Amino acid sequence: MSIESILGTDGSIAERLGNYEAREEQLAMARAVEKAVRQQKHLMVEAGTGVGKSFAYLVPAIQAALANKDCRVVVSTHTISLQEQLIRKDLPFLQSVFDQPFTARLVKGRSNYLSKRRLRVARQKAMSLLDTGREIDQLEQLAHWTHATKDGSRSDLRFQPLPKVWDLVESDSSNCLGRKCTNYANCYYYQARKDVNEANVLVVNHALYFVDMAIRSIGGGQGILPKHQVVIFDEAHTLEDVAADHLGIGVSRGQVEYLLNRLLQERRGVEHGLLATQGDDESRMVVRHVRNLTEDFFEAIASLRAELQQRQGRTIGPPKDTVRLRRPEPLSDRLSPELLRLANALDRLAQKDENPESQVELESASMRCQELADSVKAWLAQKLPGQVYWIEGNPEKPNRLTLASAPIEVGPILREQLFGRVPSVLLTSATLSVGGTEGFRHLQDRLGFPREHPALQLGSPFDYRRQAELHLFREMPDPNSRDYEEACLAKIRNYVTHSGGRAFVLFTSTGAMMRAAERLRNWFVQQGFELLCQGESLSPTQMVERFKTATSAVLFGVDSFWQGVDVQGEALQNVIITKLPFVPPDRPIVEARIEAIEQSGGNAFFDFQVPLATIKLKQGFGRLIRTKSDRGMVVILDPRMLTKPYGRRFLEALPRCRKFIDGQEVG
What we know:
single chain
């Protein structure tokens, strides 16, 4: 079957969908994907909203997988909503389109699956491992659930298990008996892995893909994903940050305490945990010692954090969430040696234990102690080259600290580990270019995408001149002035009234959003508008569903609402953007990237900060028009769109639509 015979005007999709319209942009993208896969090339495609990207890459990808049994395709998304659309809607529909059957599977991390062996062991030792009736009840619920579940994964549960309960039963490579396990033949995880290995198309999220890459890059043996010849990253504009999150260090006080509590915890004079029954006096003494050292160590980290803030002149106001370390600090490390001592004690107990099931639990805990010790040592010595290091915390919970690091530049890593190893890597999104003839260069450089491979920019089939208005303002205070927030509130009232509610108001700061919500809440009530503010009573998913069903709601949101949110029809007719979405330059990873660009002779503002903000602004704009029948306005309150020379870059990157300045139409 050709691309045209499937996606064309008289194609098999048109035969099955009565309202289907063939789009030249979709056909062009599908042809480019087909060519790249056939020639084992990499490809970058920006396809505007409404192109139908998923069919444009799925159709040629499925064709390639069916034509060659060794061609396995991985499709990676950033958001759960797109992942669910692919696995529940698009791929099942395409099953009916193709003459040959193909198999598609959603790949989940191993910890999403229940281990029947671990469940059995946990039930046998429930009284020593768990200390509340609710925890024991949940364990029994899980046992009953195994008789009804289809795949044994957590998403199939009708309740949310407590972390301590799920930790006892989840499948884990470090405590798996493999073929020696009596449950191997009907193991949920291994059955899922068998299905994955036999599938033509695998659907994953970006985080899992980069976890798999990290495992392989350090020689961690078998990764999560089987060998594949094609990987398609949808929502590829998020790749740099997701990759950085999973290619560095992250060790928190909570992680250490969680492990220690799993091993031994005293409640109401009774000891619970793995070592309550399998330990000896020495191992229990080491756990108590490590617990004391953990408290001392993270108190020292808290003191270091305060000292660094003082050095950096940040003593006024609440503690910052993150504080960067520019060099290894002379901090005493008694924790990692004692974690290694605990690991050795657990190994000793495992060697003496003749029960394979309890033995593997001890070995797993030992391995986790080793991993935490290695992470602490690597962070203190700043052993990973090319990384930025920081202490991360929550001003409201000063004891909840994390030692973190991330690569300053992921491009070189991805060039070697991704583009250098997978024959065909395809990146697509509605926002990859920042406009102009060199629009793709920013992401090509940031992601290590080889420039000798093709990049394609496809517009949207929507008529933005007819469907959308863009409202800009020259007569607004400077965004850094005291008067700006007050002026924004006035504009929000005005434009929300104009659209009768039915508006998204997008902020770049949680603090600014909360202040605006507090100031406008009573006014919204008086006008009959329902206010939905992120971080209050509803989850983001619940907020969107409520917004869709309400008659005149106004949604206040920050980062997650700028992208990946799809509200079609009359429910959304107004998107108000309060400020250009420049990433805060004092975040450690951003600060380090800016310094690296400046040191190499570049201009960080124009080479990094403006392109990054441009891509995010395009995402925010894209919330408005989702179908050919949608109508509405995008209101950008930030005057820098007009008053600063770089404002033209933002304007050139946005779709061409009717433009208004200070209420007057100008084109």
